[in-house]
Write a structure and sequence with these properties.
- By secondary structure, the protein is α/β, with parallel strands linked by helices.
- The protein has a single domain, classed as Alpha-Beta Barrel (TIM Barrel).
- It is about 30% helix and about 25% strand.
- The two termini are about 25 Å apart.
- The relative contact order is 0.13.
């Protein structure tokens, strides 16, 4: 067990495996950031960050930042504590957990501030060195305003980038962006009501095939948050399925196993 801010966190039940494809969208908006997601067995967690007065503060909008809600305080430090108590993994014997860091402020200055913070937690983070990946308990992936060009020039780094489908043909190295994310509403009209059209289902499967062919995982943001959509994404083998309804998606995955 880990204790943070007086809240006891035990994680999912011992006989319930972690959910490798469950993504906690805007995780920091839950009552207990990180801990609620871990209680439900999620293996991917999203945190938006803003660089404010040299601090990396977690919030959706800049007007809602608070000095005590830093990336380290809310995520990296409690993850380190949990990993040390679970044999080097977030879930004992479980897979690496993705920490998706969505940069909301200027890319270069934010990454310059983020880099030393990640170095402080190098003991738990996956390292990307050339074309080699030294897998660790956490895979940090930078989304939003990622400093992709700067990161591509680094010989060693503790984060990768979130890419787009359009980059698959141009950027050959999956170690730079192992994850592809797209806005669902850009390509699809279906929102879980009725049946998805044949054309949209074929397009969804084509996107998944393209990502997997290039060695990337795929997720969509902006999907309707309901079981009908989750079921379609699961059938299509989308790698990360995001939600704001942690209990609902956990129930869906457990019943689907």
């Amino acid at each position: 067990m880990a204790i943070l801010l007086g809240v006891v966190h035990a994680g999912p039940a011992q006989d319930s495996p972690p959910l490798a494809r469950a993504h906690s969208h805007n995780d920091y908006e839950h009552q207990r950031p990180l801990l609620d997601a871990l209680d439900h067995g999620f293996c991917s967690i999203e945190a938006d960050i803003h660089l404010v007065n040299g601090q990396l503060l977690v919030a959706h909008d800049g007007k809602n930042v608070r000095p005590d809600r830093t990336l380290a305080n809310l995520y990296l430090e409690p993850l380190r504590q949990r990993i040390s108590k679970h044999g080097g993994r977030v879930y004992r014997g479980g897979p690496p957990v993705t920490l998706l860091i969505d940069v909301k402020t200027e890319r270069e200055t934010t990454y310059a501030a983020l880099r030393p913070v990640l170095e402080t937690y190098a003991d738990i983070l996956t390292r990307f060195e050339g074309d080699k990946i030294e897998t660790n308990a956490i895979v940090a992936i930078i989304s939003g305003n990622s400093a992709r060009v700067t990161m591509s020039r680094e010989k060693s780094r503790l984060a990768a980038c979130d890419g787009r489908l359009a980059l698959l043909g141009r950027e050959k190295k999956p170690e730079l962006f192992p994850l592809v994310s797209e806005d669902w509403k850009t390509y699809f009209e279906w929102n879980g009501v009725g049946e998805i059209s044949v054309d949209e289902r074929q397009l969804l499967h084509a996107f998944v095939s393209a990502a997997h062919r290039h060695g990337r995982r795929l997720r969509f943001w902006g999907t309707a948050d309901n079981p009908a959509v989750w079921r379609e994404l699961l059938k299509a083998e989308v790698d990360l399925i995001g939600t704001d309804n942690l209990a609902g998606l956990e129930k869906f995955f457990r019943s689907a196993q």
